[in-house]
Amino acid sequence: MNKLVSATAVFGILLIAISPARAAPIYTIADFSGGVSTVTGLGNSLGFQQTSTCSGCAAGSVGGQVLFDKSLIPASGTDIVNIALASIAGVSNHDIFNIVLGSKPLGFEFGDINVTGSPSIQFKDGVFNGFSFMEDFVVNGKTYEFSMQGSAWAINWLKSNSSSDFVASGYVTIGSAGLFNQATLFPSLPELPATAVPEPATFALFGIGLLGIVMTRRRMARR
């Protein structure tokens, strides 16, 4: 019995030594959609129209795509949780997050130069609840701010005197049906260089495993 216990312990140590540091994330790519709720005259000039008054027209449309780690989605009862979107090797910024609005159209994506803060996908009680995203942009010499918080988005004209005028607002569809066409994505990881060296912790654990094997064989030889 002692021999079996010793061998099992050594085998476990070896498995720890060669196992990855953490489980691989479950990258999921999905589409989302929404609409335009309110528009001013300036918003009309940017190509917006209320979705309710222009059924199926491009001016009232909102749509996009997001890539997130499904294993990080919080459980129900956790209220509102923002999960930061991050660069992923082998995946374009456009696939990580992009949104297109109106008939011009206006488009924003992860990695844009004028993005403010940390773009995030939001969940409430484990269910999709929108995004946290903000970006400044310029059209015809005017500077605007596009912002999203949860299911709501808004565009404001940032005037030179530090005041602002409302331009347009809208929503993205949230809830269990908010993210559709979901699919698991497997990023194309870059190859490790031939000179890559394992981490010191891996060497240490592997060495402990080998030492355990030697000691076990010596005990067995004495009996």
Descriptive overview:
The protein is of the alpha+beta class and 223 residues long. Helices cover 22% and strands 38% of the residues. The chain has 4 helices and 11 strands. It has helices at 2-18, 41-45, 93-96, 200-222; strands spanning 27-39, 61-69, 80-84, 97-101, 106-109, 120-124, 127-139, 142-150, 152-158, 164-172, 180-184. Strands 1, 2, 3, 4, 5, 6, 7, 8, 9, 10 and 11 form an 11-stranded antiparallel β-sheet that branches. A hairpin with a 5-residue loop joins strand 9 (152-158) and strand 10 (164-172). The two termini are 14 Å apart. The model is unreliable at 13-21 (pLDDT under 50).
Count of discrete alpha- or pi-helical segments spanning 4 or more residues: 4
Shape, please? elongated
Compute the CA-based radius of gyration: 26 Å
* β-strand number: 11
Integer average pLDDT: 84
What level of helicity do the residues show? 10-25%
Strand content: 35-45%
SS-derived structural category = alpha+beta
